[in-house]
Structure prediction request, 1033 residues.
Amino acid sequence: MTQQQTEMVTVTINGQQVQAENGRLLIDVAEEMGIFVPRFCYHPGMKSVAVCRMCLVKVEGMPKLVPSCSTPVADGMVVETDTPEPAGAQEDMLEFLLINHPLDCPICDRGGECPLQDQTYAHGPGSSRFVEPKRTYEKALDISQLVVLDRERCVLCWRCVRFSDEVAGDRFIQLVDRGSGTQILTFSDEPFDSYFSGNTIQICPVGALTASTYRFVSRPWDLKAAPSVCSYCSVGCPTTNESRGDKLVRVQALPNENVNDFWICDKGRFGFHYVDAKDRLSTPLVRDGDDFRSATWGEAVAAAAEKLGGGKVGVIAGGHLTTEDAFAIQRLARKTIKTPHLDARIQDDGAAYERTLAYSGVVGSTATINDLDGARSIVWVGPDPKEVLPVLYLRLRKAVLDGGAKLIVVSPRRLSLDAFATHVIRCEPGGEANALSALTTTAPVKDDLAAPLVACWSPANPGRETGADLDSLLKVAVEKDARWLVCAPHAGSQGMLDMGVHPALESGYRPIDEPGMDTRAMLEAAAAGELDALIVVGADPISDFPNRNLAQAAMEKVGFSLVIELFPTETARLADVVLPSTAAPEIEGTLTNLERRLQKLEPLTKSPGTAREPWRAMADLARAMDDDWKWTSFADVWAAITKEVPTHQDLDVAALAQEVPPSALQYESGTEEQPGPRGPVVAGPGGQYPKGHRSGAPFKTASWPLSWELRQFEAKQRPGHIPDAPEAPEEKVGAGADAAAPMSGEGFVVYAGRQIYDEGAMVSRSSVLHALSKGAFVELNDEDAKELDVTDGDEVTLTAGNNEMTATVVIADISKGAVFVPYDQKGLRANELLGAGGRVKVAKA
Amino acid sequence: MALPEILNGMKVVITNVFKRKETISYPEVRRQPYPRFKGRHILDRHPDGLEKCIGCELCAGACPADAIYVVGAENTPENRFSPGERYAQIYQINYLRCIFCGLCVEACPTEALLMTTEFELSGDSRDELIYTKEQLIVDAPIIRHWPAKTEYSPDRSEKVKIKDGGMVRDARYPENFLPDTRTGKGSE
Prediction:
């Protein structure tokens, strides 16, 4: 938000005088004073509509009661919220709302954490004068795979409608009909097909929208909760994990105005079933001929340590690991095994994040997600954020629609951002760099490139990353004095860069004189039989590396391979030793998000069998190789990190602890002086509103200790000036043949990108999400489609080398001569196509 | 001097010698508890045979001893257990923890959970004392561990000889909780 003139006014609420910013909403000001005005439709993340009429208060001088959610405070205002007049109105409103409410609380999933229940206890009439039959509807409609709608329970607060319209921008749910027949419905035959639909469940103040995955599973009083961070993408949305017994049953968004506001995507909310997947590895496995045999942890570690002692060893790490794991991997490789060959870039192979180093002294972002809100212009280069970084998409949308930022999108294909972008620039895949260089000189665009500008980049050319586009973008950014968000794709990717799991960088972004091999070079060396051992931690190069055959050959030919994984992935099946790993809800750890914000995960459930955190596996391996790190706890790892990583020296990891905010509103039943239900509001356990929201502190200042503020970190690291001109981009180390695939040639250029729901190891183990994956499709330009004589919905065969796949055609706005293929869908593996030269022949099937 | 006190005392002793003995040789002789005695639970059914329990967990929520464990699930047209959407997939009462306070019965919104007067709860293992829905449902027989020969009414005004030891009871007919004293007949 732009800096506003904050004039303070004096307001009297219930006899208490308070200073408040002029224009703030009465309901917020009252809440900060500890006076809770009941409400249903008001939500701090959305605009007020004042439709539920629950928050009526008396303002002196006003002829009638006013809704406090849409009344700004003014100087000298005298407000009463609990005198007989407003209290009576609130009571009457509740009686009205309950006329048609079925009161089936015993079978309602919301029962026990329901704002309607709680506010009825606190402000309600206690009995109803309504004796006529209630309005009834068909119960429990499955409006999507994930959301169940019960229209009888709805109090028509519009929260879900406003969310899908204002915040998510995909209108799938709407109020239909009039008067007493008004109801919430999706459009006929169209499911509630939003990537953010789960948020409507969390904000629904009754049990009208419930989660199919949580249906009748538990009661709020059965749940144990722990704050955590979503480990699906690099936005790093804080979440509340909730378990019944030792089973994870629900994940909810944990509000943080710096990161996710109040929202998380459905992948983060519903994609937790992988934790209890049947094929989850629970015991170490050691190769025994063609098969594996179970082994003890010590036996497996000893077997692995023996092979890692000498020779050429490579280490490949995945993107879902914590900062501690990253540090341990780096330490094992550099200090114990003494190999320079380690990398954590798999799908984003070759992505030159380190280019930012010359400009800012850090590898990664210099902007925060919040900077988007104050930006006048934003440049986006990369994959579709709605598919890859969903909550960042929400923040970009908010920055453009609410903040008025001008959005410039450079992409070879139509992105979801185009709907509200000011300028859309189409380029051929890999041609982003040239398009960006022209930005500052081309007429209409250059006028909209105004500071404050945030330049966003994320790797979008799997198999073809050269860093040229990032370089061009950084040049534009420097010219315009902008900050940038460099979004490594996965939750742990930035942590890997920070901790030095990179062939050319040590921890703390210190460049190494003699860089080791990157992922591609390691796989090539392994496939050529030149690598003695390969350690793969939390990664599946065979599925993810943009050259499937190379990864497969590497795993087959390498002398010895150790894989640390959650599941028997394709890579793990070819390993010599497999160690079971832990999932995010089971560990104490930290993740660094795309703006380099460190956030803490607290453990909730137990890992199966003898599974251990990868950092413990690393420490055990080091001990077996006579280098005892003496690590037994999370604190030990951090003691080492603060000692060895210059950028993290003064970090107090204990200060990162997040709190689970109280959930549904809870009320005491009264005091001696004031008997009855209208007692003071107290905080209870659970997760609907942020803590600061009720305890008197304003929400907008994030009063609870959340995460490590980026600024502290920047102050130490940013050099005083930005270099005038960085060195010309050199040919990437290890950039292989397909990276340099010529743009001219036969067939279409393959432009691949991840979809939100795919065949990834975690999503494919969540049955509800897996069912939502789009399947094999290919996007074609309409001119190309005409030439091929195909239209929407036709089947085509894609041929690249020996690989032949079938996919459904989607005519889309994509640069001519290119096809977009989803990265990892059933029946369509982009990494096979990419591996065969990055070009594909398309023919009508 | 002390004689009146001694005689007074002996009067009490002698009077009680001829009074009815309060002790009975349990378990051969059994005394029915009063009808409102709080014993083990049953889960009732509707007249049409559907379970009254909807798996709402309010009993578990009310339980001060954390003795009840309920997991709800959704009825389907093919597999209907209770009216409405929800039924109890798992219903367990741990009688090692239960304090027979009856708060669960008060909390039950459908009057599915009731208490019988059965108090003979013992077992060879801890597991045996975790009663499942199959054991608690009203048509499951209530099985006693030991046969009784004679049974008294709660106030011991009546005494009935029981055939076959009265090992199996049926909770569906509350009047049959005291079949012997009421009807004067032995249990089947």
Remarks:
- Residues 662-743 of chain A have pLDDT under 50 and may be disordered.
